[in-house]
Structures are given as C-alpha cells and as structure tokens.
Amino acid sequence: MATRHGLTGPADSHSRERFLEAALTVLLKHGVPGLTVRSVAEAAGASTIGVYTRFGGRNGVLDALYERTFEMLHEEFAGVPRVAGDPAAGILALARSYRRFALDSPARYTFMFEQSVPGFEPDPDLRAVAQRSTFDMLVDRVAPMTPPERDPNVTGYLIWTTMHGLVSIELTHRARTPPPKWFLDTPDDAYDEVFTSGVRAMLRGLDLELS
Prior knowledge:
Elements: H1 10-30, H2 37-44, H3 48-55, H4 58-78, H5 87-104, H6 106-113, H7 124-142, H8 152-174, H9 187-205
C-alpha cells in the first residue's frame, strides 16, 4: 500500500522491519509518550538517520506502527474459531478476544483507537484499510444472522461500539483508583462478567440468536 511511510524493496525490508519492531517495543514498554524518532532509533541500535531514511520521519514510523498493530488485531481475530451451530457464540468469542487484546497492552490499544499522539493522524487510506481489515471480520460473522431488511454493517457497528465502549471504560477505571463504593470489587472476574453481559444484551437487542 502506498502511504506516507512508502514502499520498500526486498533489500531494505529486513532493516525496516527491525526499526518497526523497535517502535512496537517502545510503545509496549514506554507507552505513547515514548514514541519518538530518537527512542525508536535507540531501541533498534541505530542512528536517527536510519529512521528518516526508511520511514521519512516520525509520521512515517507511526503510520507503519499503526498498520502493524491492526495486523496484530487481525491475527487475534483470525485465531478465534466459529462455533458450529451457534453463530452468536462465535461473535461473543470474537468480542472477548478484542477485550483480551486491549488488556494485553492498553498503550497499543490507545494508540490504535484514540488520538493519543499530538499532531499525528494516520494516513487516511491506511486507516480505512487497517480498520476495515478487522471490522469486516466481525461483519462476516454477523451477516448470516442479520435479517434481510437490515444492513449487516450497521449491526456489526453496534456490536463493535458496544465492546469498544465497555473495554475503554474498563481500561480507564483500571488505570485509576476505584471511587468509593464502586460496584466492581473483583476487577478481573467482575469486568469480564460485565463485558460478556453487555455484549450478550446487544446481541439479544438486535434479535440475534443466542443460546
């Protein structure tokens, strides 16, 4: 894909991959604020010139990292099997894999779905392809269950926003001290139960079968 971080030939792909893996390491270890050209270069054991040569600058690195993180989510989704005879259960399994992906690295999740880097907006074409590559996987599971008069994209969107909202609020609360008398006393089990209940409620509300 032609984006701001450009195209590379086979000869340069290995070294470029090294810088990209370094950027992912910086993100996972130091969060979004740590994503600088210098920090990526240092993590790759190289000079900043190497970053500019291969990515054109900070936005190029961030574009490439944005693409990589969505590839990771795509791989996460691809590993979730469908449930024979129970499509809704397969959708719920996909939603729960989304939650696990977010909890595994809140910094990565924030980078993907929020405007967390000042002055950075992902390349529009890249953003469309990256997000559709994951959203379409959900729609593919939703479509066979969606009544003919409904758009499966809208149905998928409602499910996605439900799971996204629940996860985002969970991450916010996990990052802070719970307020007095907060109703979730056991975060791991309780948040999982609330998330599952929320997604199941949306599935039922959309008249999708659920065992």
